[in-house]
């Protein structure tokens, strides 16, 4: 991300000189502005942005040259042929002010608005054509009376530059007046250098300066800072890549936790359904004791046809104390053992009854024998009915 800021700085002495020169003239005053233009590039690294580049362009106004005294006889030319007057002003400044740079021009007019007129825009465009290697600034000063008696005057000043096919207003800071802005420090451009100072600096420039008017140590430090910035950007990219990997791992861990939670819930539901079908241990032990040879009675699973599944019968010995918990089962077993012999005898009598009946029919006995056999039959039938009835 890049930001571009342009400001104009002027000392209080130069501003007061402009005001004094204007108040001592009855007409409007035009002239050239001399000074220097400084550009700085600041790169900041924040938590949200890796490279935040900010360009600070500062235009320092150091001196002004009024053109009224020199071109008073060419006043008509100034309004008719602005290219010629700009050439005259530029030639005058180059011959009289050695090693000084023309960074723009100014205009002072009374009781008007802080807005460039069409003529001023044309003059500025023609000066940009002549001084193509300079970024020119136009400074407009508009004094006016603050009171009706004229005891108090007011001076408004502003600067304009050509940017993106239009004129934009840029702020002006007076260096030796109190500024309300909070900043650690700011540099103020020095006065215009003299010819002797320029010769002395040019003589020893090669020892301290590089080709671009930069100190050698500053260039070395700048290259070191660029290297550190490159390494820091690499580290930031690695950190960002690792953070993305950590986020991906955390997402996978979260998904695994959710899967594990679902599986545990499913297992809990399965165990709950299994625990719901509890086995009757006492019934199973009783059936095992009463019917040891009938495992189909100890199963809880049936087929579609309603038949017991022998593979799923209970074959576990539950270690139930039968005499203590189920005493009636032992009594039932003793009763069944006692009833076993009479039942066998009665069954044999019933089984032998048809043979004796046939034998009597073959011999064709008398009615007495038939009645006797009938009484015997009734006795035997009664005995048979008694043997079939259940015993508890």
Automatic annotation (TrEMBL):
The keyword Magnesium does not apply. GO terms for molecular function: microtubule binding; polyubiquitin modification-dependent protein binding. Residues 368-392 have a biased composition (Polar residues). One of its GO terms (cellular component) is nucleus. Keywords: Coiled coil. InterPro entries: BRISC_Abraxas1 (IPR023239), FAM175 (IPR023238). Residues 336-392 are annotated as: Disordered. GO terms for biological process: attachment of spindle microtubules to kinetochore; mitotic spindle assembly; protein K63-linked deubiquitination. It comes from the Eukaryota. Residues 232-269 form a coiled coil. This is Abraxas 1, BRCA1 A complex subunit. It comes from Cyprinus carpio.
């Amino acid at each position: 991300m890049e930001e571009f800021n342009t400001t104009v700085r002027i000392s209080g002495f130069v501003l007061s000189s402009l005001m004094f020169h204007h108040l001592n003239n009855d007409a409007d005053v035009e002239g050239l502005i001399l000074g220097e233009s400084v550009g700085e590039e600041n790169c900041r690294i924040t938590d949200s942005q890796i490279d935040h580049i900010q360009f600070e362009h500062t235009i320092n106004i150091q001196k002004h040259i009024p053109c009224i005294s020199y071109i008073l006889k060419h006043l008509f030319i100034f309004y008719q042929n602005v290219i010629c007057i700009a050439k005259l002003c530029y030639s005058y400044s180059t011959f009289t002010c050695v090693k000084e740079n023309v960074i723009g021009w100014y205009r002072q007019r009374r009781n008007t608005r802080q807005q460039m007129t069409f003529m001023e825009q044309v003059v500025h465009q023609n000066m940009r054509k002549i001084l193509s290697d300079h970024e020119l600034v136009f400074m407009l000063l508009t004094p006016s009376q603050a009171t009706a008696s004229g005891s108090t005057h007011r001076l408004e000043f502003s600067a304009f530059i050509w940017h993106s096919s239009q004129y934009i207003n840029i702020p002006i800071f007076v260096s030796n007046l109190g500024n309300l802005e909070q900043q650690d420090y700011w540099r103020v451009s020095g006065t215009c250098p003299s010819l002797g100072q320029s010769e002395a600096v040019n003589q020893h420039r090669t020892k301290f300066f590089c080709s671009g008017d930069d100190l050698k140590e500053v260039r070395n430090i700048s290259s070191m800072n660029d290297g550190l910035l490159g390494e820091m950007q690499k580290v930031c990219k690695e950190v960002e890549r690792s953070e993305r990997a950590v986020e991906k791992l955390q997402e996978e861990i979260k998904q695994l936790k959710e899967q594990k939670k679902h599986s545990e819930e499913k297992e809990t539901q399965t165990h709950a359904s299994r625990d719901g079908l509890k086995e009757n241990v006492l019934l199973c032990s009783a059936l095992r004791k009463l019917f040891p040879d009938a495992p189909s009675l100890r199963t809880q699973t049936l087929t579609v046809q309603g038949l017991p599944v022998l593979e799923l019968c209970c074959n576990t010995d539950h270690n139930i104390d039968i005499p203590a918990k189920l005493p009636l089962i032992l009594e039932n077993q003793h009763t069944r053992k006692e009833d076993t012999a009479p039942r066998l005898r009665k069954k044999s009598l019933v089984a032998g009854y048809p043979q004796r009946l046939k034998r009597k029919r073959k011999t064709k006995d008398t009615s007495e024998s038939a009645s006797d056999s009938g009484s015997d039959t009734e006795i035997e039938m009664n005995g048979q009915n008694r043997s079939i009835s259940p015993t508890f």
